[in-house]
From TrEMBL:
Its main location: cytoplasm. It comes from human gut metagenome. Pfam families: IMS, IMS_C, IMS_HHH_1. Keywords: Cytoplasm, DNA damage, DNA repair, DNA replication, DNA-binding, DNA-directed DNA polymerase, Magnesium, Metal-binding, Nucleotidyltransferase, Transferase. This is DNA-directed DNA polymerase. It is found in: Cytoplasm. Its EC number is 2.7.7.7.
Length: 328
């Protein structure tokens, strides 16, 4: 196996997908030689011990190393260093950059951004206004400012928050539209909280309208929760308190923060209805099980049937990026 070969050079091996991995060999130089020397040796061994070829990228950060591995295939070694990266990387299409998908690339092109260099030299605030926090991330990635370390295999970073956001299938024009999307997002966030054994003490929303105005607001809860109804109720109240409908809404997000383990005892809320909370918790877990067995759309809340376009959003397929990418 390739990873058995990798492990002879470093214990810092972070799998990426099925057949890729990042290796940090910065502590191996005294024993094994330079990054290029190690890459050539690994390439040779994989070819002759496993009978397959491998494409290797070398750089001082994970993002550029990934670009290097994709630069030439199927049997090549590409090094991007601090002296040559602007000449070699910045001319590449922005779509080659990690996390620039088809839709993001279309939006970048509308802004006149077609290469990684143009992205790197763009106004970071402009990108943030169009893409939210991911705009800051892409700007940093384009400039090679990725400080995310290579983690040892099996390492799991501590979860600091869980959230989902979406650019909506159409612009949202009223409170009901917002309620439908927030239900889908809250269901996904709450389900992940339950899956990982957490409750949240803070709910945060992000809103961006089609006039490109965006904002975030948060509320601290009286009791930690992973109940869908409590999360969406808090999120919707935040929205109503802070948005005056000058423009239709383009994107929404919900984030659960200040996480605590769900088995930690909490003081009973004298002003709450504990019996109702227990019923809602049981209902959520029943919905989780039904969706696990029969799929996300096998059971839906009644509100989701009021708009076929908006209710078609499958929040269960959203990707949550590592917390370190968003520095939130």
């Amino acid at each position: 196996m390739a990873r058995e070969i990798y492990s002879e050079y470093t214990d810092k091996i972070e799998p990426y997908g099925i057949d890729e991995a990042w290796l940090d060999v910065s502590d191996s130089g005294n024993l094994k030689g330079s990054g290029m020397t190690i890459a050539r040796e690994i390439s040779h061994r994989i070819k002759y011990e496993l009978g397959v070829t491998v494409s290797i990228g070398i750089s001082w950060n994970k993002i550029y190393a990934k670009l290097g591995s994709d630069y030439k295939k199927p049997d090549a070694i590409t090094e991007f260093n601090r002296e040559n990266y602007k000449d070699r990387i910045w001319q590449l299409p922005a779509s080659d950059l990690l996390y620039v998908g088809r839709q993001t690339n279309k939006k970048l092109q509308k802004l006149g951004i077609r290469t990684i260099g143009q992205l790197a030299e763009s106004d970071e605030k402009l990108l943030e206004s169009h893409f939210g926090k991911i705009g800051n991330v892409l700007w940093a990635f384009a400039n090679g400012w990725d400080e995310d370390p290579v983690c040892k295999e099996g390492y799991e970073a501590p979860v600091k928050s869980i959230g989902n956001s979406t650019t909506t299938p159409r612009d949202l024009e009223n409170d009901l539209d917002v309620w439908i999307i927030q239900i889908a997002l809250a269901e996904s966030v709450a389900a992940r909280l339950r899956k990982h054994g957490f409750k949240c003490k803070t709910v945060e929303i992000t809103v961006r309208d089609n006039g490109l105005y965006s904002f975030s607001r948060q509320i601290h809860l009286r009791q930690p929760t992973n109940i869908t109804n409590e999360i969406v109720t808090a999120a919707f109240q935040l929205f109503k308190d802070n948005y005056k409908w000058e423009y239709p809404i383009r994107s929404l997000g919900i984030r659960a923060a200040d996480l605590v383990l769900d088995d930690i005892p909490v003081q009973l809320d004298l002003f709450g209805n504990q019996e109702k909370k227990e019923k809602l918790e049981k209902l959520d877990r029943t919905v989780d099980e039904i969706r696990r067995r029969f799929g996300y759309f096998s059971i839906q809340r009644a509100a989701m049937y009021q708009d076929k376009v908006l209710s078609h959003l499958d929040a269960g397929t959203h990707t949550i990026h590592p917390h370190s990418y968003f520095h939130g």
